[in-house]
Prior knowledge:
- The protein is an alpha+beta fold.
- The protein has helices spanning about 1-25, 95-130, 135-165, and strands at about 30-35, 40-55, 60-65, 70-75, 80, 85-90, 170, 175-180, 190, 195-200, 205-215, 225-230, 235-255, 255-265, 280-295, 310-315, 325-330, 335-350, 350-355, 365-370.
- Helix 2 (about 95-130) packs antiparallel against helix 3 (about 135-165).
- The termini are far apart.
Amino acid sequence: MKKKKTIFIILGVLVLGFAIWYFGIRKKELVVKLDTEKPTIGYISENVTATGRVEPMDTVMVGSQVSGNISKIYVDFNSTVKKGQLLAELDKTLFQASVDQFKGSLANAQSLIVFQKGNFHRQSELYKLGAISKADYDNALYTYNSAITSANSIKAQLVSAQKNLSLASIYSPIDGTVLARSISEGQTVAASFNTPTLFSIAKDLTKMQVEAAVDEADVGDLKIGERATFTVDAFLDDTFKGDIQEIRLRPSIASNVVTYTTIIKTDNSDQKLKPGMTANITIFAKEVNNALLVPAKALKFMPDTTLKNYQLVWVNKARKPSAPTEGYVWLKMGDHKLEQKKIQVGINNNTQVEILGGITKNDLVVVGSKVAGGGAAAGAAASSPFMPARRSGSSNRPR
Length: 399
């Protein structure tokens, strides 16, 4: 009986040891599941992002060419004005007095011309008769010509005085809207060394432009005519559209960051956009419709030791493309076979990649692998969310 009990104890220990080994110590065989996708047909773009300011297409600074006191102002901020409309007037008292003075001087000079002309004709007749000398004749001619010259000089001064009088009235040079008024009635305007700005007038607020500051790393991808969208803080739910009109060559440098001003024209018929608004801009540097697309992570996938049950057919084990337009993906050819394929790539926005050749839409592309019941297997090569991307884009056409 005791012997039988000993045998049962030994058997129990063996069963317990086997259970511990099987469920705890034994190395479990990993079951790896491949994530695969077929290429899709869709839209892809490579985008450039920037910030900028909304400004009128054309703004005119209206100034004064003469000095004086502002006597009248006829417009204010936001006033709509027409070309030739009177905006303000300077005190014209001194200008009018100068005009009157030169008019009197000119009348006197013209009377002198008449007198000297008659005197010259008399002296000329006497000279022909030999009654006066050649010196007297020359003196009469000189006096007559001098009177004419003096009258012409006074006439020019009168024109200048009349021009200054007309400049005392400030007129609008364009049709537009007054954005700024920097003067008040009674204020003195001094135009001795430079022209003071009195008004700022925007030509047409129904057509605006965005002055985008584009980084030097991105400006090489831009071309005139490419479309752009932007938002402003005042209307976060609205997306405004525009096109690149100009890429200015003059750089702007701030804190060692070089940017280039890119002008984007946009329609503002609804008058929502106001001058000076901050715009968050997306420029579509490259766009393709009906492109063959695969997830960008498919190009990063590399088989590892967890896929020992698969037959691997290599094209390039080094996996180093010889050109930026080349890449490699893995296709699942059967239940236990993976084949590496060399592809030609186009736009890569870090989410999807445009395929130009090498595979078809019927191929099954491996984009990653997972251990059954666990996370991603080694070699899935997921990108870090903390690494900033140079481009931002979406595989869906923005609205």
